[in-house]
Design brief:
heterotrimer; A alpha/beta (413); B mainly alpha (356); C mainly alpha (289); A: 413 residues; alpha/beta; Rossmann fold; 2 domains; 14 helices; 17% strand; B: 356 residues; mainly alpha; two-stranded antiparallel sheet; 15 helices; 4 strands; 73% helix; 2% strand
Chain lengths: 413, 356, 289
């Protein structure tokens, strides 16, 4: 009896297993067709690492997509339009990201624009986006994603090379060549991946030389979650660095700031980072040690103007303090830009004529568009923001130290 | 499990791929379905199948190494990287045709595997895994740092052209599907043949007891290296196809975790069965596809504002949790793999109503 | 020379944390023959739980309850995922830990929104100067804590009944069972202790980094070469392995080329495997025909 019931259990278990697999296959195959196209729906597709290592900054971006779309719907800014967000989590795995892209690409109606959160994923998928004529709207605008400027590739920030160029301007402007009698030296401490080295290109290195700034070679690298970067800092110090520049996230900045302070180098070496480092989380992680850290920033921060419209949205939608990551303001701008482009494209060609070419042209037509957290300008020759500013960590707050300024264009000619 | 009325009179019958007419008919029907699938299926399904097929090739190699020869490798994706870069560079730099570059990519992957397989002479079990683990860090490092002017390094990476055979360019999902499926079928056939001939039997002998195998006169070192070579040839070819499918490469495509997942597919499919490799690859890829697709749908069903601002996090987490839990439940209830379950299922169908 | 000494000190101090994470993996492998690929995720979950407790109960009680909870986390993980796999092939257990890592990742995302959680500044970030070599206070404390943990474990394995039971189980499951050791209980305890150690590591990482962020799980990868260089079955090996990896990283990055930082441990690993196939302190299994 016992034996028989056990055998029966095995059999039914196998049956359930195969049933589950069959259901999975059918569901996966029919999923997109189940959501048929309706008129006047604006769908924003978003793919990225939401549960993995980058989840901390990307998921608040998703909150921003929703909040801004809700605002547009409430105020009926595009008459009669409905808004929808379709997202998928790649978990930081590239092969997953590609399969997500292929799923999105062939869903019906064909998506016009997909937001991609990871620099590495955007770099890997760029070709496929251009081939399938879908707009790649990327969080991380590295040299490899942005250049050469492609009709369907847009960066939702000043590109990393532009940021680096802006930083070079700042360094050479604040350097007394006559008094010091030598060029300023900038050491690089970053991740050895697409995002960490996103600013690196021949154009930026040539620009640094033109601005009489010496870049210390070789670059220093640290692991994804460094416990200690004092080795790298000591090497850079030995090479005579006046500045250290990083392209990574707040936790790594915190580690570096602390090690600089601990080694007593924070008086001698100034520290700066590219856009995603300007994160209010730094306050929690590094406290006082972050004082003086400079971040190139494309967006408004949570430390200024609490009455701004986007801060009100943040409150209205019950967003939690955890959402106060850098990703939220970035995607407020991102969603505003996308929806404004839709609005202009629809005005020009109507709902019927809406395609990615029209959308791309609409994006290119944006001139100093107020996207709440950032002024957005695109042009046919420049598919990333042209303006950015610098924020510095002062008394536990991110304080803007420059106004919105046009960055040098690092587009390789 | 044999059908009633089928008797193996000769050894060749016992090891035949198709034993009965039903087998042959099923296979032909299967081929016909694959041929005409693009007419009815959407691009989504095709790209999913292409992804499964490419993964299957690399898992097949691992299946021969792990399931038959009893060795272990955590460097499979690194060997894929070697194949992908070899094929891409041979075509872009040396102007090789695709049909020549593909076997060369396999060979390059195989050689890399051979080098990291040498410790297998002295190492066993997890220590061997660790020698190959080193490969999955050292090979990407070599790609990025030794000649970045050729490989493109991290920036700007390597751009791979779509495959061209006799003037026909495979640049759509449909054409890629046909190409990849054809190569996969050939690779499955080769794998099947490897395992049912002398080499395969030697592998099994080594897996079951390497000391006894040596006594039987099997040159263990030779066959272990051969297993590594075959495994990495499969990885190389799979990597090359991946490169031609993605058309942009950098070392981030090939990480340690991918290798571990390939090993996982071998387990899920069922150790020691060629079809198990395909099953395992298909199961994990479909599960991934399902999880990434379904979590957002579920979120859409939830009335807005019910979970406050947390809904996104919950559903992002649910996706990952479902994926993990499916793996856990699968292993608890079916630790011997899909292939085993499949055979039990078939047998119970045949024996119905006498199966218990 | 000062530069070299400084690199050495940095390497050793960082290595002690790798060693602590490696110890968690070794404890499990030694007794249950399971290689835990989910150690990074366990690290995160226990760290995040600790931050929550600290925000509720203050530092002292928060830390203690964090440690206790991770102890029970280990028990639960073992009971739910690995107990059913006893007797199954080793590869299946590897797969199980992979599944576990995704499940834990999901738990982290649901429970803690996968964001950065602050850790209170328990120790100030200053350094003690010995001659011209600066030693970070927090890293030094981390080093001392790790070493204390190792010593305690050595005593635990040598003196206590449970520790001896674990060693016997590591030797041979069936023999251990026949001498009256509760092997299942030992398995459960191993996981509990491993998660406990992971929690200590997470607390140290939290103190050093100022908080627990999702990227911390990547440190789990660092422990693999440490485990292997030392030998999978040896706790002292894990210590030596961890310290060696830390030192190599620091020396290679500081003296040769920064890109070598990540990869040098693996070159050394290969070398070790060629010369001593069972790691530096691994158990040599003798086979004769």
């Amino acid at each position: 009896m016992g034996k028989k019931s056990k055998a029966l259990a095995t059999k039914s278990r196998n049956f359930v297993l195969f049933l589950a697999v069959a259901v999975m296959i059918i569901l996966s195959a029919s999923y997109e067709t189940a959501q048929a196209a309706k008129d006047k729906v604006i769908t924003i597709y978003a793919a990225g690492d939401y549960s993995g290592p980058y989840g901390g900054i990307t998921t608040p971006g998703m909150a921003a997509h929703r909040d801004v779309m809700k605002y547009w719907k409430k105020n009926n800014l595009i008459p009669g339009a409905k808004y929808k967000l379709k997202w998928a989590d790649s978990g930081g795995i590239l092969s997953r990201a590609t399969s997500i892209f292929r799923r999105f690409k062939s869903s019906k109606p064909k998506p016009l624009l997909i937001v991609v959160a990871q620099t590495g994923e955007a770099e890997a998928l760029r070709h496929l986006f251009e081939e399938s004529k879908i707009i790649l709207f990327t969080w991380g605008a590295s040299a490899k994603v942005c250049y050469p400027v492609g009709k369907y590739i847009f960066g939702n920030m000043a590109s990393y090379p532009d940021q680096f160029g802006f930083f070079m301007d700042y360094v050479s402007k604040n350097w007394d060549y006559a008094k010091m009698g030598r060029n300023p030296k900038v050491g690089i401490l970053t991740w050895d991946n697409g995002f960490g080295r996103g600013f690196e290109s021949d154009a930026t290195m040539a620009y640094a030389a033109k601005k009489k700034v010496d870049i210390i070679k070789p670059f220093q690298f640290a692991s994804t979650a460094p416990i200690d970067v004092s080795t790298q800092l000591l090497v850079l110090n030995k090479a005579g660095a006046d500045w250290v520049f990083s392209s990574w996230l707040a936790p790594q900045v915190a580690t570096t700031c602390k090690d600089l302070a601990r080694l007593g180098l924070n008086k001698k070496i100034k520290y700066a980072g590219s856009c995603p480092t300007g994160d209010v989380f730094l306050k929690r992680l590094a406290g006082k040690n972050a004082e003086g850290f400079i971040s190139l920033h494309s967006f408004a921060t949570f430390d200024e103007n609490p009455n701004a419209l986007w801060r009100k949205l943040f409150k209205e939608n019950n967003r939690k303090p955890e959402d106060m990551a850098y990703g939220y303001p970035q995607m407020v701008t991102g969603t505003m830009t996308i929806l404004e482009a839709y609005r202009r494209a629809i005005k020009k060609v109507g709902w019927e004529g809406l395609n990615s070419d029209a959308l791309s042209e609409a994006l290119e037509s944006l001139k100093d568009f107020d996207a709440w957290t950032s002024p957005v300008t695109y042009s046919p020759t420049r598919h990333s923001h042209n303006k950015l500013r610098m924020v510095q960590w002062q008394n536990g707050k991110l304080v803007p130290i420059t106004d919105w300024t046009e960055a040098p264009d690092m587009n390789p000619k | 499990m044999k059908l009633f009325g089928t008797f193996d009179v000769r050894y060749t019958q016992c090891t035949a791929i198709f034993r009965t007419l039903t087998h042959k008919i099923t296979f032909v029907v299967f081929l016909l379905v694959l041929c005409f699938l693009p007419l009815i299926a959407g691009e989504q399904l095709l790209s999913l199948l292409t992804h499964i097929a490419i993964t299957s090739i690399t898992v097949l190699g691992l299946m021969i190494l792990v399931g038959y020869a009893g060795q272990i490798s955590l460097g499979q994706s690194a060997f894929m990287a070697v194949g992908a870069y070899a094929s891409g560079l041979l075509i872009t730099l040396c102007g090789f045709p695709f049909l020549l570059a593909l076997p060369c990519a396999g060979l390059a992957g195989g050689l890399a595997g051979l080098i990291f397989g040498i410790p297998s002479l002295r190492l066993k079990g997890f220590y061997l895994a660790m020698a190959t683990l080193a490969a999955s860090f050292i090979i990407p490092w070599l790609i990025v740092w030794v000649r970045p002017d050729i490989t493109g390094g991290v920036y700007p990476g390597l751009t791979v052209p779509p495959p061209v055979i006799f003037g026909f360019t495979f640049n759509t999902e449909t054409s890629m599907f046909y190409l990849v499926i054809t190569i996969t079928l050939i690779m499955i056939y080769l794998a099947k043949n490897i395992t049912r001939t002398r080499i395969g039997r030697a592998f099994v002998a080594i897996r079951d007891n390497d000391l006894a195998a040596e006594v039987l006169g099997i040159n263990i070192f030779k066959y272990k290296l051969m297993a590594f070579f075959i495994c990495s040839v499969y990885a190389g070819i799979s990597g090359a196809l991946w490169g031609h499918w993605q058309r942009a490469l950098n070392p981030e495509h090939f990480t340690l975790m991918d290798s571990v997942w390939y090993l996982g597919m071998v387990v899920v499919g069922g150790l020691g069965s060629i079809m198990g490799a395909v099953f395992g690859a298909a199961f994990i890829r479909i599960l991934e596809y399902f999880v990434t697709a379904v979590a957002p749908i579920l979120e859409g069903w939830l009335p807005e504002g019910l979970a406050g601002g947390y809904a996104i996090y919950i559903f992002v987490g649910l996706g990952a949790l479902t994926f993990g839990m499916s793996m856990i439940l699968f292993l608890i209830f079916q630790p011997r793999g899909i292939n085993h379950a499949w055979r039990v299922f078939l047998a119970s169908l045949r024996l119905h109503p006498f199966s218990d | 020379m000062v530069f070299f000494l400084q690199l050495t000190v940095t390497g050793i101090l960082t290595g002690s944390i790798y060693a602590l994470i490696a110890l968690g993996i070794v404890i499990i492998y030694k007794a249950t023959r399971v290689f835990n690929f989910a150690q990074g995720e366990v690290l995160i979950i226990s760290g995040l739980a600790t931050t929550t407790f600290i925000s509720f109960f203050g530092i002292a009680i928060g830390l203690i309850s964090g440690l206790i909870v991770s102890f029970f986390l280990g028990l639960i993980i073992e009971r739910l995922t690995l107990r059913p796999l006893i007797g199954q092939p080793i590869l299946a257990t590897i797969m199980m830990t992979l599944g576990l890592s995704w499940a834990l990742r999901g738990v982290g995302s649901i429970g803690w929104q996968s964001t950065i959680r602050q850790f209170p500044e328990i120790v100030s970030h200053s350094q003690i100067m010995i001659g011209e070599v600066g030693i970070s206070r927090i890293h030094l404390i981390a080093f001392l804590v790790s070493m204390t943990v190792f010593v305690l474990f050595a005593i635990f394995f040598k003196k206590t009944k449970l520790g001896l039971g674990m060693r016997a189980t590591a030797e041979n499951h069936q023999f251990a069972q026949s001498t009256g050791i509760n092997v299942k209980g030992v398995f459960a305890m191993t996981w509990a202790i491993s998660c406990f150690v992971a929690c200590i590591a997470a607390i140290l990482l939290g103190c050093i980094g100022g908080g627990i962020s999702p990227t911390v799980s990547m440190i789990g990868l660092k422990a693999f070469p440490a485990v292997i260089v030392g030998g999978l079955e040896s706790a002292p090996g894990a210590v030596i392995g961890g310290l060696a990896i830390g030192l190599l990283e620091s020396w290679a990055g500081g003296l040769i080329h920064p890109s070598l930082m990540e990869v040098t441990p693996y070159f050394v690993l290969l070398l070790v495997l060629f010369i001593r196939p069972y790691g530096l302190f691994g158990l040599v299994r003798i086979e004769r025909v």
